[in-house]
Specification:
By secondary structure, the chain is α+β, with helices and mostly antiparallel strands. Helices cover 24% and strands 37% of the residues. The radius of gyration is 26 Å and the shape is elongated.
């Protein structure tokens, strides 16, 4: 296609703005929310009143429940109790033995820390204020490295780690990665608790036990343990400007749990708690980063202080089957912009080209292209087939550079 037709084609193809707006509306209805708790230095005066009301209601319910529970307990002995239905004579057992969560909590809890951060911010008039936030983290080695979420420590001026035994240690950021919402911080201490054992999230099955350990609502509730199941795998959630593929669980997770551990029945960390869906009709939908996805990121953050990602150097958009038929072009990824000086620019790819293959592999969506690129390394050379000028295909060699993200 000549330059005029190419320009008209690129301008005519609908952009992603409408889709993005629609996605935004859906997220506003059911909002993914990170688990960090932020506390202003000067709480409002009605805070104490609200707490008093809550406590009063709690005491009222507690008294009523205590009376009922007391009567129930009197009818039970300390043994496992077997009941028989008079209608069908089927027996069922109320198992009162030790919960399987107990040994898991004993094994993993010492490896989980509470994280307290301080951030400075400036208001419209230039006044500087300080806020405090809370999160959780996982000790991952004997050198004092702790993995947490990027959104827990991002922008922090001061980081304090509270260990399982109550000791408080200053921490420094080793590296952060906004794209995966992961960060590694480090403390210096010769008497650290044992570090957590990382598991294999690829073997997870829906329905198996899941235990969440962290610090909901801050350090006062550090080491809180909740249990549930794996509710779903490979759940895709659009957060900010990126899509995250996560583990879904119904184990209760609350503000302050960000960066805490999701643990399997063997006491191995299989996920890092990161966000939840917030909406009046939604309950028990928490999400964790699969540990297999986190491991290579953690390794790079410790080694390089950042994640080295390969970069093609284009802004692209999917040309689906319907659009391809409408404009009589192949399916693939339409190049809307080529970044100056990038590998794509140096190789001769231009605005209006449609990428159809990379290293011989068919490309039909932007997500597929991104997946292929992320499987490569910085400096790798790839063969890119593109449909473009004069309705012809061309194949160019592109050397991938390092992304600045």
């Amino acid at each position: 296609m000549d330059d005029d037709i190419r320009k008209d084609f690129v301008d005519d193809v609908p952009g992603d703005n409408e889709e993005a707006a629609e996605a935004s509306r859906e997220i506003d209805t059911v909002r993914p929310q990170f688990y960090t708790e932020v506390i202003e230095k000067k709480p409002k005066r009605w805070g104490k009143a609200a707490i008093a009301i809550t406590l009063a209601i709690g005491l009222a319910f507690g008294s009523a429940f205590g009376f009922i529970a007391d009567n129930i307990i009197k009818g039970l002995n300390g043994r496992n109790t077997v009941y028989a239905s008079q209608e069908n004579q089927y027996n069922y057992v109320i198992d009162k033995t030790v919960s399987p969560v107990v040994p898991i909590a004993k094994k993993v809890s010492p490896s989980i820390v509470a994280i307290r951060i301080k951030k400075n911010y400036q208001d419209f008039f230039g006044f500087v204020y300080q806020s405090e936030g809370n999160g959780s983290g996982i000790i991952i080695d004997s050198e004092g490295h702790i993995v947490t979420n990027n959104h827990v420590v991002e922008g922090s001026n001061d980081i304090t780690v509270v260990l399982y035994d109550g000791r408080e240690l200053p921490a420094k950021i080793v590296g952060r990665d906004a794209q995966t919402d992961l960060a590694v911080i480090k403390v210096e201490d010769k008497n650290l608790p044992p570090y957590a054992e990382l598991g294999d999230s690829s073997t997870l099955e829906v329905g198996e036990l899941a235990v969440a350990i962290g610090s909901p609502l801050g350090t006062n509730y550090a080491g809180s343990v909740t249990a549930g199941i794996i509710s779903g795998l490979n759940r895709e959630l659009y957060v900010g400007n990126r899509t995250m593929k996560l583990i879904q669980t119904d184990a209760a997770i609350n503000p302050g749990n960000s960066g805490g551990a999701l643990v399997n029945s063997e006491g191995k960390v299989i996920g890092i708690n990161t966000l939840k869906l917030v909406e009046s009709k939604v309950e028990g939908m928490g999400f964790a980063i699969p540990i297999n996805e986190a491991k290579p990121i953690i390794e790079q953050l410790i080694k390089n202080k950042k994640v080295l990602r390969p970069y093609l150097g284009i802004v692209g958009q999917t040309i689906d089957e319907k659009t391809a038929k409408q404009y009589d072009v192949p399916q693939g990824v339409l190049i809307r912009q080529v970044v100056d000086g990038s590998g794509a620019d140096k190789a001769g790819l231009v605005r209006g080209d449609i990428i159809t293959k990379i290293d011989g592999e068919r490309v039909t969506t932007i997500e597929q292209l991104q997946k292929i690129i992320q499987s490569k390394k910085v400096g790798d050379k790839i063969k890119v087939e593109a449909y473009g000028e004069l309705n012809r295909y061309k194949t160019v060699e592109v050397q991938l550079t390092e992304s600045n993200d």
